[in-house]
Design a protein that fits this description.
single chain; alpha+beta; 8-stranded antiparallel beta sheet; globular
Length: 131
């Protein structure tokens, strides 16, 4: 899991895919955190992505590193109402504190469970990581 975190963190931007009924939706994300041995992402409750993850928690993440490797992560997004998890995420991304506060009713953090990540390149075999 730590390797997946480091890969996503180093990319800066990753793309999160959800389902909106029968239509896939993909958008750029930038938050990733490890809290209590779980990999977390963050969004706002009022955003469509939050509603989509609640309706169908299966998500995929993809990002490309500057060295030409890429990652794909398939997982289930689990909402965590723990204020400490929200605080930890926002401490890692202080620029978000202008829009989000722990316990504000809008900040939502999700951890990824039953996750399978693949780190791939054109020159090496894919590496699989489950967490």
């Amino acid at each position: 899991m730590k390797e997946v975190y480091e890969f996503l963190k180093n990319c800066g931007v990753y793309y999160l895919a959800t389902m909106d009924g029968g239509q896939p939706r993909v958008r750029p994300f930038g938050t990733v955190d490890i809290f209590e041995e779980k990999l977390y992402i963050q969004t706002g409750k009022v955003k469509p992505v939050a509603c989509q993850m609640k309706a169908n928690p299966k998500v995929e993440i993809s990002a490309m590193a500057q060295d030409g490797r890429w990652i794909r992560v398939a997982a289930e997004a689990v909402l965590d109402d723990n204020i400490k998890a929200q605080e930890h995420m926002l401490d890692a991304y202080p620029n978000l504190k202008a829009m989000y506060q722990p316990g504000d009713g809008n900040t939502e953090v999700y951890y990824l469970q039953n996750a399978t990540a693949q780190i791939c390149s054109f020159t090496e075999p894919a590496k699989e990581i489950k967490f």
